[in-house]
Design brief:
Elements: H1 2-27, H2 36-61, H3 66-82, H4 88-114, H5 118-145
Helix pairs in contact: 2-3, 2-4, 3-4, 4-5
Length: 153
């Protein structure tokens, strides 16, 4: 019985300690950076966003095939995923952006296959909104360090 009581007390102490550590980590401020890899990521992301946007507009205007748009979106996802930003906010964008591009590609494919890519496009825009939120929150700190993300907002 004493053994069981000691184990229970140890488990309780461990959970309280780990819980306190988690709260300290969550409340710590994000340490932003604007190094070479961060700048390169921002440039690559902006180029890919512009490229997919142009193909998307051309596709909607009838000047590009769905396969062109799908290929551009898949390339954008691959390129963004292969980047290695150091800034934590940009790492989060790196995590979400490929999914956004791939959902956009899926929307174009669904539109070609069944006439409606509404669900896929909704997901792409939802993910894109989250990316925008990340950029909006990080913008002041990144701008102070020399990484201007205002063009991406």
């Amino acid at each position: 019985m004493l053994r069981l009581g000691i184990i229970a007390v140890l488990l309780l102490c461990a959970s309280v300690y780990l819980g306190a550590q988690g709260r300290q980590t969550a409340s710590a401020s994000v340490q932003h950076s604007c190094g070479l890899t961060d700048r390169q990521f921002l440039e690559n992301y902006a180029v890919q966003l512009e490229s997919v946007g142009m193909y998307g507009n051309d596709y909607l205007d009838g000047n590009a095939k769905a396969s062109d748009l799908i290929s551009a979106a898949q390339d954008a996802a691959r390129i963004v995923r292969s980047s290695a930003p150091f800034d934590p906010s940009l790492q989060l964008v790196r995590k979400y952006a490929p999914a956004m591009f791939l959902q956009y590609a899926a929307a174009a494919q669904a539109r070609e296959d069944k006439g409606s890519g509404a669900r896929e496009m909704y997901l792409a825009y939802s993910i894109g909104a989250r990316v925008q939120d990340v950029f909006r929150e990080a913008q002041p700190a990144l701008a102070a360090l020399g990484c201007d993300v205002s063009d991406l907002l």
